[in-house]
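Figure S4 source data
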Amino acid sequence: MTEATAGAPDDGADVGTVSDRACIVYDEQLMQYDFGRTHPMAPVRIDLTMDLAAEMGIVDGLEVVGAAPATDDELHLIHSAAYIEGVHKLSDHPTYTDLSIGLGGDDNPVFAHMHEASALVAGASVEAARRVWTGQAPRAINISGGLHHAMPTTASGFCIYNDVALAIRWLLDHGAEKIVYVDVDAHHGDGVQKMFWDDPRVLTISIHEGPQTLFPGTGYSTETGGEGAEGSAVNIPLPPGTSDAGWLRAFHAVVPALVREFAPDILVTQQGCDSHMDDPLTNLMLSVDGQRASYLALKALADEVCDGKWVATGGGGYAVMDVVPRAWAHLMAIVAGSPVDPMALTPQRWRERIEEIRGMPGPQRMTDGRAVGYRAWEQGYDPASWLDRSIQATRTAAFPLNGLDPQP
């Protein structure tokens, strides 16, 4: 694998060497974000993703760069001083818990050096944003990022520091006037929405399994932003069981029109792949092929609307051997500008490595064998369909606030 070059922790004023190659912010130290052997968010998913991408030559198409941990002052831009102090304390005393700040218990167990690991993830997403904003890379990705549930004063949903929110804050502080954040994780992007609820410069769009059936129980279509920022939060709650065709129908019925109307300077995305049918924690039914289609759609939007400027992060994904590595290898290839053929064989050595871990080999191809297609919204609305009612509710709630007609 290409050796990482150190990221610059300065204010981004020095553009440095301009490259036409996209970059990935990666360091093996990022896998120290580890809640323990039995936790579903296993860091082996990152290792297997990078291994697969390296074996397939995807990493060769990216500049691999390192990053510095976010400082306490930087973290304080989105988190309270008391919360950061609490994370420090528990990080130094991992046998303690503090449920008042969300740390302890099954979801967010305390682990040694927790602050350092979490600050590095946050710093990596800031570095990805810095690289794109200063022109050092056209696109950038941090697959270890996407910790979208972390709140200003608490950890939540496996997320300690909200790296994507910090990256967005960095961009705002360094000249970005309008940013669109698109979250395709199966879970609602509640932490990022919360942090920019009152900021009309940031349009947050989350497409997720509905709050009736999945954590965190938020993300209704009626959540549209705070006073003075009405319409800046958009939520597309999907019925459990939604598969590729329904997911893509919902995405294309809502997201492109809003992004085009908002006309952001840069696109920031959270690419959680726990929407997959094999994911043990969610109830959506997407395939790797459908997820790949969503990545291509987001790149196309970035190219069309904001001169290609795109910062992508990882997120959820708990089918850590069969799904996450393939989904995010596809994502990395699309960020690199060289999409992988879904029919491509996975490398034998990679499959054998998975067999060593779990006793059965990994998947043979980069596809789940699903044909990806969907019925466009303009072809008609079916009021008997839960999916269509959800789409229409989102359009009705959000489109007029953004100067758009909610009707097809």
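Figure S5 source data
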Amino acid sequence: MELKLELPGALPLTAEEFAAVPVVEGARIELEEGSLVVMAVAQMMWHTLTARRIEAWFQAQGIFAAREVGVVVGPRSVPAPDVTAFHKPVTDLRRSQFPAADVRCVVEVVSPESTKRDRTLKPLLYAEAGIPEFWLVEEHPDLPSDAVIQQYELPRTAAGAAYAVARTITLSELEGGQ
């Protein structure tokens, strides 16, 4: 696949300039310290269905959630979590990115091509931006249709921003109301 983009400015881009970058079919583009990070969209059906199930769970709890929208975590950084849950419903549906202050939880569903970024880099960015919850979702080792969710919370009294594990639960347990 050849990727050609008309950028709204010179690199490094700001979050505002990044909002004008066109959508590219079959690619996922994020902004990291002003540089574009281009990835293939999730290749595994498990990844897609798991993100969809988590989004549906949030919505069933009355929490507005969406998949793969940008979250502005800094002036030149806009990751796109697999699922983003908001403090209140989003009314401007034409936006492609939202300030971290609007976000209550971000969810990263780990896939082979994103393991290091999902486990290491993104939690740091989200914590520094003050997002209260971060969920890291991985394949269940024994049940191919399930997932293991590590739910992290940002302690209010933390010196520096770092998540602490609140609980570990399977997706099927979460959906079952436990």
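The mean pLDDT is 90. The longest helix spans residues 45-60.
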